[in-house]
């Protein structure tokens, strides 16, 4: 009713002040929550995301990797994660370019992060000769090989990086980018021309999450696969091609052919109909225009959803949706394409 009294320009400005467009990460708490979630998933404790036994060991290993990310994020001196000069950041933002782009030159300090990550892992993983062998291989990479791996990981190329090495390289890059992203001034960062890439670093999102609480109530965010920034995108919209007309949702328990009422509106005053419904925790948002999908995790139905961890653990849903003819819109950094 109020909005009818406003001119279009005013509605726009109202919109911009009421929806937090960008949620920047807090590295340490992000990684700690993610590691805890991975362990719960590995233990099959999460209703709505059943995990096959074959996947449980891998999730435990990735939990150890994420523990190491949290430790390294806290332990390394702050100058490891220095931002580019303020003038460069301003120039990028003024031109709707990501201020911390993943393409182009990388701060060489990421290799310090990588070495520290391997040290933490070596200390925490005992009696696992296979993992020790991978860590030894990673340690033996020279600078040129390591930079080549990072290029491949950030460009999501399957060539140029060994599938068993990729998650560890990706983990170091995530620490580097997340620690820098947390220092930015979120109101100043502008959306990119395309809303399907991270406004902070330009990477693809790993998955969507519907947030609850405070000003983000009921809004959908895309979480960056690299820096973990979350940016707003309206619900029922393809996060790959941005079309809206042929969106559908699939979950493991039900094949929904109709759009649920709660997805049809984005109203911060609307109460979710049924909270804590396990079949709504993890769903795939499919698009018949581009034939891709991304998963969407709903905090209304599980308060502790964590996009990257939940995406990694819900491979069963990938199988279901790919059998229906949809391709993943982008990968999960902790699982390389041909590693499974
Ligand atoms: Zn990002
Ligand atoms: Zn699409």
From TrEMBL:
<keyword id="KW-0963">Cytoplasm</keyword>
<dbReference type="InterPro" id="IPR056797">
    <property type="entry name" value="FdhE_central"/>
</dbReference>
<dbReference type="Pfam" id="PF24860">
    <property type="entry name" value="FdhE_C"/>
</dbReference>
<dbReference type="Pfam" id="PF04216">
    <property type="entry name" value="FdhE_N"/>
</dbReference>
<feature type="domain" description="FdhE central">
    <location>
        <begin position="197"/>
        <end position="235"/>
    </location>
</feature>
<dbReference type="GO" id="GO:0005829">
    <property type="term" value="C:cytosol"/>
</dbReference>
<dbReference type="InterPro" id="IPR006452">
    <property type="entry name" value="Formate_DH_accessory"/>
</dbReference>
<feature type="domain" description="FdhE C-terminal">
    <location>
        <begin position="236"/>
        <end position="335"/>
    </location>
</feature>
<dbReference type="InterPro" id="IPR024064">
    <property type="entry name" value="FdhE-like_sf"/>
</dbReference>
<dbReference type="InterPro" id="IPR056796">
    <property type="entry name" value="FdhE_C"/>
</dbReference>
<feature type="domain" description="FdhE N-terminal">
    <location>
        <begin position="19"/>
        <end position="192"/>
    </location>
</feature>
<comment type="function">
    <text>Necessary for formate dehydrogenase activity.</text>
</comment>
<protein>
    <recommendedName>
        <fullName>Protein FdhE homolog</fullName>
    </recommendedName>
</protein>
<dbReference type="GO" id="GO:0051604">
    <property type="term" value="P:protein maturation"/>
</dbReference>
<dbReference type="InterPro" id="IPR056774">
    <property type="entry name" value="FdhE_N"/>
</dbReference>
<dbReference type="GO" id="GO:0008199">
    <property type="term" value="F:ferric iron binding"/>
</dbReference>
<comment type="similarity">
    <text>Belongs to the FdhE family.</text>
</comment>
<dbReference type="Pfam" id="PF24859">
    <property type="entry name" value="FdhE_central"/>
</dbReference>
């Amino acid at each position: 009713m109020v909005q009818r009294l406003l001119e279009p320009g005013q509605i726009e400005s109202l919109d911009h002040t009421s929806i937090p467009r960008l949620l920047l990460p807090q590295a340490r708490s992000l990684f700690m929550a993610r590691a805890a979630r991975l362990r719960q998933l590995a233990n099959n404790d999460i209703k709505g995301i059943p995990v096959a036994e074959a996947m449980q060991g891998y999730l435990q290993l990735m939990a150890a990797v994420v523990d190491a990310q949290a430790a390294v994020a806290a332990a390394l001196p702050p100058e490891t994660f220095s931002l580019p000069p303020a003038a460069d950041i301003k120039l990028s933002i003024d031109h709707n370019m990501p201020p911390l782009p993943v393409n182009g030159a990388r701060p060489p300090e990421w290799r310090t992060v990588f070495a520290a990550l391997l040290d933490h892992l070596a200390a925490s993983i005992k009696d696992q000769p296979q993992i020790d062998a991978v860590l030894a291989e990673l340690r033996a990479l020279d600078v040129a090989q390591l930079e080549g791996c990072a290029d491949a990981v950030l460009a999501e190329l399957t060539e140029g990086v060994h599938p068993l090495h990729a998650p560890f390289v990706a983990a170091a890059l995530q620490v580097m980018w997340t620690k820098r992203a947390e220092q930015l001034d979120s109101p100043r960062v502008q959306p990119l021309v395309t809303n399907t890439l991270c406004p902070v670093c330009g990477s693809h999102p790993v998955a969507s999450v519907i947030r609850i609480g405070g000003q983000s109530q009921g809004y959908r965010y895309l979480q960056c696969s690299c820096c973990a920034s979350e940016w707003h995108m309206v619900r029922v919209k393809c996060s790959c091609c941005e079309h809206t007309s042929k969106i559908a949702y699939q979950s493991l328990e039900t094949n929904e052919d109709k759009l649920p009422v709660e997805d049809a509106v984005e109203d911060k005053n609307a109460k979710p109909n049924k909270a804590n419904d396990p079949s709504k925790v993890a769903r795939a948002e499919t698009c018949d225009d581009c034939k891709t999908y991304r998963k969407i995790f709903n905090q209304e139905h599980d308060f502790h959803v964590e996009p990257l961890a939940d995406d990694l653990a819900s491979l069963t849903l990938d199988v279901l949706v790919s059998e229906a003819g949809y391709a993943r819109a982008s990968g999960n950094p902790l699982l390389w394409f041909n590693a499974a």
